[in-house]
Amino acid sequence: MTKKTAVIKVRDLVVGFGDENVLDHLDLDVRAAEILGVVGASGAGKSVLLRTIIGLLPRRHGTIEVLGIDLADAGEEERRALERRWGVLFQQGALFSSLTVRQNVQFPMRENLDISQRLMDEMALAKLEMVGLAPQDLDKFPSELSGGMTKRVALARALALDPEILFLDEPTSGLDPISAGDFDELIRTLQQTLEITVFMVTHDLESLYTACDRIAVLADGKVVADGPIATMLESEHPWVKTYFQGKRGGMLAERQISA
Ligand SMILES: Nc1ncnc2c1ncn2[C@@H]1O[C@H](COP(=O)(O)OP(=O)(O)OP(=O)(O)O)[C@@H](O)[C@H]1O
Ligand SMILES: [Mg+2]
């Protein structure tokens, strides 16, 4: 696959609840092996978009192709096969609290693969190392982990089936800036070594500067701006202007230019 191929193609998407449409004729492409940052005000519909793309929310109109398949046309088997090709880190409820780290990471394996416990143990260990955790963390429960470790375990679980696409909803929220920076670097490294396509919802300006290849801004139910940081800094859209050229955004932009 070349860099330009769209692995996710959203066209004319309408999603709503009751009388209101949260997404209103939205178009979006996510290209192979890129890290796309999705931003927008709280309530703009970022999580709704993510959940609709992976088939957890119904749409009122439009098409969504992921890896060439539209879930709306897919049968049960095709759907399950497609679901195995992506990993998700949700905004809330990252881990099963009654399961250990090992069991959490092995959960998708148990659901989808017919392999021995020994092989699953080896795979869980490999995933844990991939996200920068130690073997002794395998037998901890979620309540024994820090926020940053929890995010890493959730990421290890999202990577359990060697996905082609990674969906991340606010992966660095709640982390201190250094842990968040480490996490961004980890995503970047994983994307480069595994050539995964990453769809990342984030509020974190730092992530947008350091981790993302391209940014899509959600407002009024649509993608109102998309492109690299440079495009965001030139945008005339009021929300984009305030967000990227406001006090915090401006500081980061200056740092980027002087670096
Ligand atoms: N299951 C649901 N039923 C009804 N309304 C919903 C549902 N899920 C989301 N909404 C509404 O859709 C809108 C968009 O929600 P969404 O969670 O996508 O926002 P968001 O952009 O992810 O915000 P945040 O940055 O705060 O996470 C909100 O008005 C929310 O109340
Ligand atoms: Mg959200």
From TrEMBL:
Ranges for domain ABC transporter: 8-245
CDD domains noted in UniProt: ABC_Org_Solvent_Resistant
One matching Pfam family: ABC_tran
Gene Ontology terms, MF aspect: ATP binding; ATP hydrolysis activity
Keyword entries, A-Z: ATP-binding, Nucleotide-binding, Transport
SMART domains: AAA (SM00382)
Entry superkingdom: Bacteria
Protein name as catalogued: ABC transporter ATP-binding protein
Organism encoding this protein: Methyloceanibacter superfactus
